[in-house]
Amino acid sequence: MESDANVTRKTDLGWKHGYLADPKNKNDVTCKYCGKVAKGGINRLKQHLAGGYRNITECKKCPEHVREEIIEFMAQKKNARETIDMTHEHDMTDFDDEDEMLMGTEPTGKRKQNSTPTSNAKRAKQVGPMDAFFKSPSQSTAKQKTLNESYKKEQRKKACAEFSKWMYDAGIAFNALNYPSFKVAIDCITRAGIGMKPPSAYEARVPFLKQEVENTNEKMRNHRQEWLKTGCSVMSDGWTDRCGRTIINFLVNCSKGSMFLESIDASSYSKTGDKLFMLLSKVVEQVGESNVVQVISDNGSNFVAAGALLMAKYKHLYWTHSHH
Ligand SMILES: [Zn+2]
């Protein structure tokens, strides 16, 4: 099936998943899974397996792990190529199958041109990281722009579909997408580029968590300094959880913004004003009684009673209720 002439080509991972039906025609690679003939060499076959390319339909029969392996392989090759471009080593002989960087190009004519590996024409086609900043006359046409746009649109669709799939898999709340931190994360991933190694469970659980706790502590230190300078308000928000417990969240507000302080199971406190007063004064002490200008809570009778006791104890402090 495969001739010796293909020995060098067979180092490409794609050859594990496709073969030449006619050894003399290196352009037509048959997919092992669905039998589709990729007319555009091993590169086109890989696009068929990876999916999401406008040149060729996605393979419906290739196993998911193969698809992932191919996507990873293509990303690594692209990375390697970009690294080489960056270091100005333009000997691209290792990538002789990889000359279709632009998915929007029509391959047939160019492919024939390139079948004799005189590499000047080929080099002209290679796209490096800096190329985005320089328009080449042949690429600056409106048509190319439209192709790029529709290609980008397709890529976005694919990325979003895969991302959503992961969310359903992992049971991530849809609301998580509304977090501003999510947009920041996506921007950073985009900047890191193709082939970025995702964070491992260990990394998220240990080093990055440690780092984030440190960041949060740093922010809290800033807030605490602000409390000292300009004073602050303690806000309490009570709610009942699914088990019927009364939970009170405490937040501290100052000119730098609001900070979550703690969440207390107040089931045993909240019934009487006396006990609630004890809880509130504990929080006030924690924030620093001289810093607290105001305590805000809801206007349940227990809070009203606790508020009166607070104002009696701390002369400079005002208790205010929020309307529910
Ligand atoms: Zn296939």
From TrEMBL:
Location of the BED-type domain: 9-69
**What keywords sit in the KW lines?**
Metal-binding, Zinc, Zinc-finger
Q: What InterPro entries does its record include?
A: DUF659 (IPR007021), RNaseH-like_sf (IPR012337), Znf_BED (IPR003656)
Superkingdom of the source species: Eukaryota
Bias type Polar residues, positions:
136-149
**SUPFAM superfamilies tied to this protein:** Ribonuclease H-like
Residue numbers spanned by region Disordered: 106-150
Query: Which Pfam family, just one, is annotated for this protein?
Result: zf-BED
Looking up PANTHER family in the UniProt record yields: OS09G0499600 PROTEIN, OSJNBA0013A04.12 PROTEIN
* Protein name, UniProt field: BED-type domain-containing protein
Record the organism: Spinacia oleracea (Spinach)
User: What is the name of the gene encoding this protein?
Assistant: LOC130462610
